[in-house]
Protein 1
Amino acid sequence: MSQSVEFSEHPFAGQSKLGQVRLNAPKAINALSLEMIEAITHQLEVWSHDPHIAAIWLEGAGSKGFCAGGNVVDVYHSLKQADQGQFSYRYFHTEYQLDYFLATYPKPIICWGNGYVMGGGMGLFMASQYRLVTPSSRLAMPEIAIGLYPDVGASYFLNKLPQHIARFLALTAYQVNATDACELGMATHYVCDEARDSVLKALAQGDTATLSRERVETHIERVLYNFSMADDLPLQKPELQMLDKDIAQLMTGTISTIEQAMMQLETECDALQRARETFLHGSALSAAIILKQLDWAVDQTLEQVLERETLLSLNVCLNGDFVEGVRALLIDKDKQPKWRYSSVNEVPDGQLHGFFIVPDHFNQLQAAAKISSQSLVEQS
């Protein structure tokens, strides 16, 4: 068992069990390391074949949040050691495989999305069947600030939203509250922050020895419905709904017209001001990549999106603004990144297209990752 992720089993509907996955790196708001990703994948594989495990509960340790994202600092250090992307490929490939495994898992998955749910945390959260948010929840894809792009299947699940909202979330790192998350379908249930133990206790109650998937889902949904209808549940204003017309105007057209609209924006709305600052201070190269990837991903399957993201993430790490973005925000913390381009209009079409092309050593990276995965299986 990895110390940075804990596994346990709890009663579920009588004699069945609930498999619990707990991200256990609270000081880093449970940022996902490769070790954590591999440990979770292995345990989920074991539980998928266990007839006593009826469902999975996924949560993070600490009160700050479920998961603030992937551990991109490890990726940064590997790139600074000039490993030609070997660790980067393995990290992102393994992370995206876990996201797909969760999305296609044979048993229901319940994710407790309290506090910050960002980046890699959003990948886990959105791949879960039941996505619980609380008054403290803040959902976001902040990758533009580190020279990356919303990955972990984001161009799949964001495209389930209205186009202008998807673009806004991807380009501005806007933090979605619980009410908006439910209204948009990003979350399935809104419950109190303090309800976690009570929800688990209610899920444990019952007297059915064996449960079909349909009965398991019925039991879960009955429990979650009761908590989502609690009288003491704090009300939150749906901020995105109130900003819908403004966002639609800002996010119309090409990435060039969006940049122009954001530069010309004059508003007294704090949320829009923050969005504007984040977009304009973020990587222009990433902004161009983000819109190209979002537009391509319309009508694509999650599997197709994750396959393309594996390639795109590798190329962005090797040739994009990622290294500089992580340096400025997480390593030196000067928050003064020196991006390659100051405007999306400066990004050459040829270079932008190059991020979506398979690099010459891609097969070598795939082979190295398979060898590493096989060694892990033999050791476990």
Protein 2
Amino acid sequence: MAGISYIRLRGFIRKEVLQIRRDPSSLLLGIVMPVILLLIFGYGVSLEPTNVPIALVIDEASPATQELKARFQLSRYFRPVTVHSIPEAVLLMESNHVDGIVHIRSNFSSLMEAGEEAPIQLILNGIDANRARIVEGYIQNAIGMWSERFALQTGRSYAPPVVIEPRIWFNAAANSTYSLIPGLLTLIMTLIGTQLTALVIAREWERGTMEALLSTPISSDEILLGKLVPYYVLGMIGMALSIILGVFLFEVPLRGSLFVLVLLGSIFLIASLGLGLFISSAARIQFVAAMGSVLSAFLPAFFLSGLMFDLKSTPEAIQYISTIIPAKYFVTITQTLFLAGNVWSVLLPASLVLLVMCVVLVVAARKKLGRRLPQ
């Protein structure tokens, strides 16, 4: 970048820093918002349902059925309520008070003692199909464990046709928080990098300060750097807070290199800043710039990055669209570094794509600025 005056650049950066200090919304979005998001996702969001409300309809009171009932009552996955009839349980499900009904018929114990099949009726609320499948698995597992214990107590053989010995790599506890917190870094840095900077130049136009800026000798390269540097520092502070809270508060393991995480986080943040500056250069109204950042950055980062949904389960057209979303690659990087370590076969391809996107977005922002500012 030839022709840059470092005196002018230093003064312009100082002006941007003062503007950030005087604008509480910038500090709120850059520092307070990451903490709030981490607390909400870490404590309030879980992909494993617990305390699932279910209705137990037990037509006979026997030691076997009482033991099965106790297994549901003592499990942290269920919050059972005992009712006396199926119509009563159906009313609870229709009013959304329970998510499932477990019906044990009156001849259940006699069939079990005779060594015959003793069916248990399971009715699930299928409005949320994914939750229904998870709850079904929970109930089947609870009944299966009870059946095995019942067989041992009565001296019968219990040999299921297939025995699975699970080994879960990288997240042995199968804790969804361990995958959400690293991925949440992407959402936080997208908010800081794109949402915040998208309002910068649009705000300058609305307030009329851009015209005063155009009358100075400052170049478009100096404008670009002056806008990038302060918000880059703010974004890295937000990233540091997120890493500290994730590791020490939520105890998410960081198995990879912290240096690699910071380096690749810097690349992603600069790409987000470039996108935000491009949007703000194209829109002179803050509302339009804000909506543009939401549609082009925040929503794709939330829905098309693999943070909340498995992209392999989506249609191929959606998977192709996700390949142009920078957040997708940074989610892969953060989850790999936190949970698996320095797996270079995963990190290098994602990093190279992210670097290319970073260069393209910064160059696009520079060209857009050059169209509005004198060379």
